[in-house]
Write a structure and sequence with these properties.
The chain is 38% helix and 19% strand. The chain has ten helices and eleven strands. A seven-stranded mixed beta sheet has the order 3-2-1-4-9-6-10, with helices on both faces. A four-stranded mixed beta sheet has the order 5-11-7-8. Helix 9 (215-227) runs antiparallel to helix 10 (235-255). It is globular and about 55 Å long. The model has no long low-confidence stretch (mean pLDDT 94).
Length: 261
């Protein structure tokens, strides 16, 4: 293995002028320098490309064209990737400066892994202020299918050979393409976690798909779990029904003015 293997980072983007500069700088300011950076913009009509072009001399590939959605945009970047490890960071999330350096060290210790991720994640708001820190420990594929389906996509990286072998992201999945990818990658290799401190941040704000998807998001998770081998009685599948029920009850109570938003 090369002492400084090439690492590819892809940023899909569409009308994220409010946040994308922070995302770009979080990649360019990595302490690890052997990085191929690809931005795939789906034809933004705001100031996104003005910001991207400020850094065009430091970005390896910039694509600006209409796409079929987030998964399609990420796949365009994945297919152009040259790194031994490949990951993506959305245009409203950020990587902390030592993220890639720490993941590369983990990769050197466990070179046969398929997924390398950080088990701790900071949640930030639209002003980049820390909301809270979460921890998600994922020992194997069975855990995702049978116990808890949550993954930490921000700051995670994938063995490119495994990524090619599974055919990249499923472009028909709109919400939880990362969960589906992890389940397929874990048929090819193991998962390894960095657990000392958060290496990335996920931004929570009103227009994220996680915030706006609600029931569609939960149904998409359930479909992905079942397609990848979970049983209808698994705890992970049951949780999607439970959260859906809670959301429906809350919606009814709000509509009837029993509770306020």
């Amino acid at each position: 293995m090369n002492s400084y293997p090439l690492i590819t980072i892809v940023t899909p983007s569409y009308n994220q002028g409010k946040f994308i500069e922070e995302t770009i700088l979080s990649v360019l300011n990595q302490t690890y320098k052997n990085i191929q950076y690809i931005i795939v913009d789906g034809g933004s009509t705001d100031n996104t490309m003005d910001i991207v072009n400020k850094y065009k001399n430091k970005i390896d590939i910039i694509i600006h064209e209409k796409d079929k959605g987030q998964s399609d945009a990420i796949n365009k970047g994945f297919k152009l990737s040259k790194g031994e490890l490949v990951g993506w960071i959305n245009s409203d999330d950020i990587l902390y400066p030592t993220c890639v350096e720490e993941i590369v060290q983990l990769y050197k210790q466990k070179p046969n892994g398929a997924i390398f991720y950080c088990s701790k994640l900071n949640l930030i708001n639209s002003e980049s202020e820390l909301v809270r820190t979460i921890e998600i420990n994922i020992p194997n594929r069975r855990h995702l299918l049978n116990q808890k389906y949550s993954v930490i996509q921000q700051g995670s990286f994938y063995n490119r050979e495994s990524l090619v072998a599974v055919g990249f992201l499923n472009q028909d999945i709109h919400y939880c393409m990362d969960l589906d990818l992890w389940l397929r990658l874990l048929n090819k290799g193991t998962i390894h976690a960095y657990d000392r401190c958060p290496l990335s941040a996920f931004r929570i704000w009103e227009d994220t798909k996680t915030s706006t998807g609600n029931i569609k998001f939960l149904k998409n998770i359930r479909e992905v779990l079942l397609i990848n081998g979970a049983t209808k009685l698994s705890r992970a599948v049951w949780l999607t029904h439970w959260y859906e029920l809670k959301f429906n009850i809350k919606t009814i109570l709000i509509k009837t003015n029993i509770i306020s938003v």
